[in-house]
């Protein structure tokens, strides 16, 4: 009742203002007659009372609804009134509730995925730590090399976790620059040269020195490193080289990373960019969270790059990144 009175106050004030204006006009033109004015005011008051009564009873279901405590976000909203405004508010609240529930469910799904990834990551990090402890207890001839390899696995895992935590707020961490493609890729390979040497897989660069791209250096390094790590991981023992090529096409640079490794089964190809999808290779070789290519696809989406992946089982895999760029003399 109190809510309706607050809603009706502007109408009552407008009605009162009309009567005051009418009184002033009649008084100024010497037309004021108390009995006639009282009759007019009475008729208007009755009309106002009838109107407010109609409004009150037509809006009563909505008023009750607005004053009823909400017990659950899944509580349905019932359109109990045919009054246009009340029905419109009911429909609006229903749409708002739907959006809120979808948003809440999406956040819960993300939180579950985050917990799942963290659990898998912790499990993976235990393996190199156990190996390091074993190496320290029983050092062999390759003591330093084996230790370095496990430390590199820890560092790569920590970097992936760090980038995954920053991914949702990537927009606040972007800095687009004009970068020389060959220089950037060479620095990434030099940073991870032990990865290639350890697995006896060697990179072959076919990048023209005049090619440049527009991207964020830090995030682009993560993307290329993840693709190179995958290429080496599934090429070791099966192939010998990873080819990194780039060509200019209509104001774009297409960067290709190609290996001659085990390849990806055809049935797994449509899902390789899905979160937590490990596929047959992930189960066969182990130590796969299924998040690497998912992170790559999300970062490329944020950076405005496109990524494509082709593979033939037993032949190899080709990843293509399409970037904004060109030649130095353009």
TrEMBL record:
Enzyme class at the top of the EC tree = transferase
Q: Give me the segments passing through the membrane.
A: 12-29, 35-57
Which compartment or compartments is the protein found in?
A: Cell membrane
Q: Which SMART domains match?
A: HATPase_c (SM00387)
EC number assigned by the record = 2.7.13.3
Q: Tell me where in this chain the Histidine kinase domain is found.
A: 120-327
Which InterPro entries does its entry note?
BphY/WalK/GraS-like (IPR050351), HATPase_C_sf (IPR036890), HATPase_dom (IPR003594), His_kinase_dom (IPR005467), Sig_transdc_His_kin-like_C (IPR004358)
Record keywords, A-Z: ATP-binding, Cell membrane, Kinase, Membrane, Nucleotide-binding, Transferase, Transmembrane, Transmembrane helix, Two-component regulatory system
Q: Offer one example of a GO biological process linked to this entry.
A: cellular response to phosphate starvation
Pfam families per the UniProt record, alphabetical: HATPase_c
List GO molecular-function terms, semicolon-separated.
Answer: ATP binding; phosphoprotein phosphatase activity; phosphorelay sensor kinase activity
UniProt keyword Plastid, yes or no: no
Describe the reaction catalysed, as an equation. Answer: ATP + protein L-histidine = ADP + protein N-phospho-L-histidine
In which broad location class does this protein mainly occur, judging by the first location in its UniProt entry? Answer: membrane
User: How does the protein's chain sit in the membrane according to the entry?
Assistant: Multi-pass membrane protein
Please verify whether the record's keywords include ATP-binding.
yes
GO CC, alphabetical: plasma membrane
- PANTHER family in the record: HISTIDINE KINASE, PHOSPHATE REGULON SENSOR PROTEIN PHOR
Q: What is this protein called?
A: histidine kinase
């Amino acid at each position: 009742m109190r809510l309706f009175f607050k809603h009706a106050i502007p109408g009552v004030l407008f009605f009162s203002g009309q009567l005051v204006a009418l009184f002033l006009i009649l008084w100024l033109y010497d037309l004021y007659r108390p009995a006639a004015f009282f009759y007019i005011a009475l008729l208007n008051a009755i009309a106002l009372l009838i109107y407010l009564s109609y409004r009150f009873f037509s809006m009563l279901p909505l008023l009750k609804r607005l004053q009823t405590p909400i017990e659950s976000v899944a509580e349905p909203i019932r359109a109990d009134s045919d009054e246009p405004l009340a029905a419109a508010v009911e429909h609006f609240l229903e749409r708002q509730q739907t959006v809120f529930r979808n948003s809440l469910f999406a956040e819960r799904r993300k939180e579950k995925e985050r917990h799942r990834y963290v659990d898998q990551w912790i499990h993976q990090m235990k393996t190199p730590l156990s190996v390091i402890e074993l190496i320290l207890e029983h050092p062999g001839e390759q003591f330093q090399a084996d230790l370095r390899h496990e430390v590199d696995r820890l560092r790569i895992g920590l970097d992936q976790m760090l980038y995954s935590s920053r991914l949702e707020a990537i927009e606040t961490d972007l800095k687009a620059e004009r970068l020389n493609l060959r220089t950037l890729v060479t620095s990434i390979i030099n940073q991870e040269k032990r990865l290639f040497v350890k697995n006896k897989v060697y990179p072959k660069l076919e990048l023209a020195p005049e090619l440049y791209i527009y991207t964020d250096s830090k995030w682009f390094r993560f993307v290329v490193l993840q693709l190179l790590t995958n290429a080496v991981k599934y090429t070791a023992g099966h192939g010998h080289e990873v080819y990194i090529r780039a060509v200019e096409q209509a104001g774009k640079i297409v960067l290709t990373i190609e290996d001659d490794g085990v390849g990806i089964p055809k049935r797994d190809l449509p899902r390789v960019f899905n979160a937590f999808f490990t596929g047959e290779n992930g189960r066969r070789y182990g130590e796969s969270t299924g998040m690497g290519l998912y992170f790559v696809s999300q970062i490329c989406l944020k950076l405005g790059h496109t990524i494509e992946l082709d593979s033939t089982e037993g032949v190899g895999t080709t990843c293509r990144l399409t970037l904004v760029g060109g030649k130095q003399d353009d």
